[in-house]
Amino acid sequence: QVQLVQSAAEVKRPGTAVRVSCRTSGYPFTNNDIYWVRQAAGQGLEWMGWINPNSGNSGYAQRFKGRVSLTRDIVTATAYLEFSSLRSEDTAIYYCARVGSPTSKLDSWGQGTLVTVSS
Amino acid sequence: DIQMTQSPSALSASVGDRVTITCRASQTILTYLNWYQQKPGKAPRLLIYAASSSEGGVPSRFSASGSGTHFTLTISDLRPEDFATYYCQQTYDTVITFGQGTRLDIK
């Protein structure tokens, strides 16, 4: 079955960077885009960006441009989120999700990775 | 960006009740609308895609409709496991946006 397994929780200092991984299995990795979505404690869902694992092309929400980089490793079927210049307000759970058709539905999700930014 | 507004923000209901959640888009999104359920400490789960199509494995008590700017999610005969937060999501625009969520509590 389709699975997306994310890396463990991280604690980071303000101004540093974090990398979150999303290892996929159960389907051809290059067939589906991956979205990244974050959720601060007690808050709603916020879309961050997408990556096409086949081409490596990516797109970002305006507020994250310049701080977020989405990459992938086809060999290991893993997508990565790199987030730099972290601030305390970036403390959140970060999710990866597989994009399906039609309507770019998010039909499988990772379990989430808590990133805590604190001095 | 397209704004998605859900109403109500919170809702209390009893087991066996029928509830309806509304999602409005700030501009037309045709039927590029998905619904998700999220329980505390868990990732969201896809319920409905393309405004009215049920994802596999979703109980038939969940139904949805709408197009353009107005959408609804209805849950009939509420079960204890249905008490959760529900989000709508538009994928019409290249910038994806979610509604703010509707928390469904047990009365």
Question: What does this molecule look like?
Answer:
The complex is a heterodimer of chains A (119) and B (107). Chain A has 119 residues and is mostly beta strands. Chain A has strands at 3-6, 10-12, 18-25, 34-39, 46-51, 58-60, 68-73, 78-83, 92-100, 105-109, 113-117. Chain A is globular and about 40 Å long. The N and C termini of chain A lie far apart (40 Å). The mean pLDDT of chain A is 97. Chain B is mainly β and 107 residues long. Chain B has no helices and 11 strands. The model of chain B has no long low-confidence stretch (mean pLDDT 97).
What series of H and E elements makes up the topology of chain B?
Answer: EEEEEEEEEEE
What's the total helix number of chain B?
0
Main sheet specs of chain A:
7 strands, mixed
Rg from alpha-carbon coordinates of chain A: 14 Å
Could you state the order of secondary-structure elements of chain A as H and E?
EEEEEEEEEEE
Instruction: Tell me how many strands of chain A there are.
Output: 11
> Given the C-alpha coordinates, what overall shape of chain A results?
globular
Radius of gyration of chain B: 13 Å
Question: Between the first and last Cα atoms of chain B, what is the distance in angstroms?
Answer: 35 Å
Distinct helical segment count of chain A? 0
Structural class by secondary-structure content of chain B: mainly beta
Topology overview:
The complex is a heterodimer of chains A (about 120) and B (about 110).
Chain A: E1 3-6, E2 10-12, E3 18-25, E4 34-39, E5 46-51, E6 58-60, E7 68-73, E8 78-83, E9 92-100, E10 105-109, E11 113-117
Parallel strand pairs in A: 2-11
Antiparallel strand pairs in A: 1-3, 3-8, 4-5, 4-9, 5-6, 7-8, 9-10, 9-11
Chain B: E1 4-7, E2 10-13, E3 19-25, E4 33-38, E5 45-49, E6 53-54, E7 62-67, E8 70-75, E9 85-90, E10 97-98, E11 102-106
Parallel strand pairs in B: 2-11
Antiparallel strand pairs in B: 1-3, 3-8, 4-5, 4-9, 5-6, 7-8, 9-10, 9-11
